[in-house]
Write a structure and sequence with these properties.
Strand content: 5-15%
Shape: globular
CATH architecture: Alpha-Beta Barrel
Radius of gyration: 18 Å
Protein name: 4-hydroxy-tetrahydrodipicolinate synthase
Number of strands: 10
CATH class: Alpha Beta
Number of helices: 12
Helix content: 40-55%
Catalytic activity: L-aspartate 4-semialdehyde + pyruvate = (2S,4S)-4-hydroxy-2,3,4,5-tetrahydrodipicolinate + H2O + H(+)
Pfam family, one: DHDPS
GO biological process, one term: diaminopimelate biosynthetic process
GO molecular function: 4-hydroxy-tetrahydrodipicolinate synthase activity
Strand order of the largest sheet: 1-4-5-6-7-8-9-10
């Protein structure tokens, strides 16, 4: 049930006057597809999903299904620390035409490894489209273990894991233990090449919001056997990849998009404008990269 190979942009959500700006949302989708992005994630962490109202979240997923319209795979962010709520979002995403759902393990209440298995199993069993497990301990406070991912990989529609633990040893073990039972996507833009080297299929990317072609080419080069070109692009893109975390994501990427003339809109509290010293560093990096 492979969902995509390549670079999936974790798209920002543009806000204007406190509301979702669907006109800008459509422009960003069109630009991403034009610039060779291989898939689009809507309402992920970078999309400020934690501050979307229920109506906004559902409206984004429904609008994305209609507007993307099969041009590239559409991944819906439907994770929550409330299993029943995540089931509802995932079912609505499937109705909206999503090709897969991205499911985070419970944050704040956290659960145990057995609880994570029960949580993701319940969601996967409630839908027919593929599930991508999202492991990001820095956000959830709980790492999903290799053994847990192995157990979840037995579920027919649990198709992939987005690995953002930052632990290459763990990713290598997932690849060794799970083999072809689950696809691996890098959740960190600076780890794309190392993860592909152990069998990963690509990346779910923050940086692709501003450098979609380079992130696409990084993966495509590796898959075509041009390891040297992939290495060059990993080193090149790391200037941007690291800059995207000068402050909490998505503050830097929305700031960068604004500087580049891409209408990413406002940030929503509790996220605020980037500090001037960090913005100056970011601006310098964008200039060095050739984006300004």
């Amino acid at each position: 049930m492979s969902i995509f190979t390549g670079s999936c942009v974790a798209l920002v959500t543009p806000f204007k006057d406190g509301k979702v700006d669907f006109e800008s949302f459509h422009k960003l989708i069109d630009w991403q597809i034009e610039k060779k992005t291989d898939a689009i994630l809507i309402a992920g962490t970078t999309g400020e999903t934690s501050t979307l109202t229920d109506d906004e979240h559902l409206a984004l997923l429904r609008d994305a299904g209609k507007y993307i319209n099969g041009r590239v795979p559409f991944v819906a962010g439907t994770g929550s620390n409330d299993t029943a709520y995540s089931i509802m979002l995932s079912q609505e995403a499937e109705k909206a035409g999503a090709d897969a759902c991205l499911i985070i393990n419970p944050y704040y209440n956290k659960s145990t490894q057995r609880g994570i298995i029960a949580h993701i199993t319940a969601i996967a069993n409630a839908i027919t489209i593929p599930v991508i497990i999202y492991n990001v301990p820095s956000r959830t406070g709980m790492n999903i273990s290799v053994a847990t991912i192995k157990e979840l990989s037995k579920i027919p529609n649990v198709a992939a894991v987005k690995e953002a633990s930052g632990d290459i040893s763990q990713v290598t073990e997932i690849a060794r233990v799970c083999g072809n039972d689950i696809d691996i996507y890098s959740g960190n833009d600076d780890h794309v090449l190392p993860i592909m080297a152990v069998g990963g299929k690509g990346v779910i990317s923050v940086s692709a919001n501003i450098i979609p072609e380079d992130m696409h080419e990084l993966v495509a080069s590796f898959m075509a056997g041009d390891i040297e070109r992939a290495r060059e692009l990993q080193f090149k893109t790391n200037l941007v990849n690291l800059a995207m975390f000068y402050e909490t994501n998505p503050i830097p990427v929305k700031t960068a998009m604004g500087l580049m003339g891409l209408d990413s809109g406002e940030m929503r509290l509790p996220l605020i404008e980037m500090e001037e010293a960090n913005k100056a560093k970011l601006t310098a990096d964008l200039k060095t990269y050739g984006l300004l």
